[in-house]
Amino acid sequence: MEDRRGGVLRSLKKQRPSIRSLFRSGQNPANSAAIPSDQCIPQLSQIANSVVARCSRVLLIQPEQLQRQFESQMPEDVRQPSCYARNLLEYCSYSALHLMVQEPDHLSDREFRRLSYDMMLAWEAPAAGCETLSKEISMQGKTIVEDEDGVSIFYADSLNMAVQVDDKKTVGLEAFTRIAPAAPSIADIIAVDNLFAALTSSSGGQLHFLIYEKYLIALDKVIRTARSFGGSAMISNLQLAAGEIAIEVDGTIPTQPVFQHIGISAWPGRLILTNRSLYFESVGVGSFNKATIYDLSSDSKQIVKRECTGPLGAKLFDKAVSYKSMSLPEPVSMEFPEFKGHLRRDYWLAIIREVLHVNQFIRKFSLTDVREGEALSRAILGIFRCRAIRDAFHTVPAHFRTILSFSLAEKLPKGDNILEALSGRLEMLNIESGGSSLNGSKINSTTIQPVSLLTLQKFGLIIMKETEVIKDVKFSNGDVWVGDVNPLELALKQSKLDSSKAEAAHASVTQMKVEGVDTNLAVMKELLSPLMEVATWVQLLASWESSVKSSIFLMIFCYAIFRDWFKYILPYSFLFLAVLMLWHKHQAKGKPVEVLKVIQPPNRNPVEQLLVLQEVMGQLETYIQAANIILLKLRALLFSAFPQATNTAALFLIFMAVVLVFMPLKYLIMCLFLEPFTREMPLRKETSDKVLRRLKEWWIRIPAAPVQIIKPDESKKRR
Fold it and tell me: What is d(CA 173, CA 153) in angstroms, rounded to the nearest whole number?
């Protein structure tokens, strides 16, 4: 069977048109040879018939037989006239892709790239009589590079290509999300939307064949590089555990090392990421020293985030990744120096987090054996795609736009439902479905297979010793179902309803972030101005400058406490805020929120900003010292360093305990309110000042408990 498949794929490679003639003619190679009329399916369009004919050659059956299989195996709702053509096309495309992706080098096969792209084109116009509208990218303001015949090939910017392939036809998001996830190497169902956005960021939301082909070629190179890690001397001195494979290596070039920072010490070396751990090997004499291992699969509350580093611990360059774990005495930073930007750091931050998230997913749902291997394989293939996007288009999508599935599920609204649906999908792996198909109909020899794991194994990347593979399977339940959505897709659609709002909110937060300590303080002061006005008003009443107003407020508040109304203060406050928000909603009537106007503080040069920062740090140090003094005096009271003060404090605590036991709560609250509010009252001001003075004198006489500062052992730290 393998020889027959290989022969079919080799036969598809014959009569390959040159890429230059493709640019000149703008013809689709799929339509270069006319399809005999007796082999055309009447319900399908011309391009759909072309795709079905090529799928039938891959499957080694006639198009009519393929159509009969579809009609006999699919349920009636999938065969309705309104969706017949598109569902038949999906059935043929999924069946052919299932066989083609089993070839180890299918990404390097241009016929595979062309056919998979034509499947998307045909999906947009599957029925007879449909014609795909030509979609073009506006070339206004672009510089075009032409060949000797005047045919434009590329823009001057390599990211913006003037695509003139297949009569300028392009693929939209919906077609890409229905076809691409059927090939596990190309896309994952969870992040397929973000992958499409990354591929079409410079082409107006339409995918051109050149961009699609460039992505697959880059992905093929990434996988070949990862395959070479296993047998190369690059990581031969590492003792990897069974089922552990190297995913990414950085720092092998002497001019581009990775620096490991611990405290103020830094060591150059290379960094290796596997599906389990992170390895750092410092540079030694003629070779690398023994690797330091950071286990990403353990449950040790690990945190990976951005970090700034610099010489002697100075926070100057935002080019590092910080790793913190309960198993480490202090955080470790990995710095990725580069001349401009921090793309290298962003890429490593993304892939380390992906490995961390997939191992958290495995622990959460207790996945083992094939299920664990399938989850790891999904993450590994996602990292390969991320590397391909970085190499081909020099970008790493982040946050809600990330193309790493497990990291995306952690950030999306209701992402936990996505992970639960994925866990349910993994629970059915390698289980005979008892003849039930992906839509409930009867299909012979139908199984649910670990498609990502099998794809990795076809690429020569083994993460399991043995995997039960069912041979000669004509169809496999994948992440996409013919004419229907599976539970994982349903969870994704529900999450997408909220993700746009969350992304817009995140964009607004990013936009509203202002720079400068003075500016941020001015914004905070303006936002808190209503509360500050209330606090100023209460302070004015407590100062008893207006005896009438203060007395009225005192009587009202005491009466409320006496009648036990204080327990309704919080509910009435919530009710007042709710009514206020609804009133503002009614008054606004869909209008945008009024802009908060803040007077910008005077501009300061860098030296002045450093002086302000130094002053703020000095004030912060003063507050911390005062807090430490209070804690040390309390420690001295606790351990009776000053017996007379300890006796006084103990008697006061006993008295307060008796009061709390026997005094009703409302009287206690009234006392706590009356004491500070009437402190400035003319009748008791002199007495209050005298009592406060005695308390301060008593507190000053209490000594602070002794403290000894011990320097760390530098020799142990170096080891």
Answer: 24
* Highest mean pLDDT, choosing among 134-143, 345-354, 430-439, 449-458: 345-354
Are residues 319 and 349 both part of a single domain? yes
The answer as to whether 426 is a domain residue is no
DSSP state of 256: S
In eight-state DSSP terms, residue 289 is: -
Contact 269, 250 (CB under 8 A): no
Strand partners, 332: 323
Query: What region, left, alpha or beta, does residue 73 occupy, with left being phi > 0 and alpha being psi -120 to 50 degrees?
Result: alpha
Taken in order 592, 598, 603, 606, the sign of the CA dihedral is negative
- With respect to residue 148, please indicate whether it lies within any of the assigned structural domains: no
* Separation in Å, CA 509 to CA 23, 318, 502: 45, 21, 10
Average pLDDT over the chain, rounded to an integer: 78
Is 34 a member of any domain? Answer: no
Structure confidence at residue 630 as a pLDDT band (50, 70, 90): confident
Q: Which token pair is 208?
A: 């051109």
Neighbours of 700 (CB within 10 A): 9
Range(s) of the domain holding residue 312: 233-383
Is residue 136's pLDDT more than 70? no
Answer yes or no: do 361 and 277 share one domain: yes
Q: Are residues 583 and 652 in the same domain?
A: no
CB 403 within 8 A of CB 382: yes
Q: Which amino acid is at 681?
A: M
- 635/589 same-domain check: no
Which phi and psi (to 5°) does residue 242 adopt?
-60, 130
Q: Using a cut of 0.90, tell me whether the model's pTM lies above it.
A: no
Radius of gyration, alpha carbons of the chain:
34
Would you place residue 664 in the very low, low, confident or very high pLDDT band (cuts 50, 70, 90)? confident
**Residues 309-325 pLDDT 10s:** 877 777 788 899 999 99
Domain tally, the chain? 3
Q: Are 48 and 33 in contact (CB under 8 A)?
A: no
Whether residues 275 and 348 fall in one domain? yes
% of the chain residues with pLDDT over 70: 79
Percentage, residues of the chain above pLDDT 90: 30
Cα gap 252→522, rounded to integer Å: 48
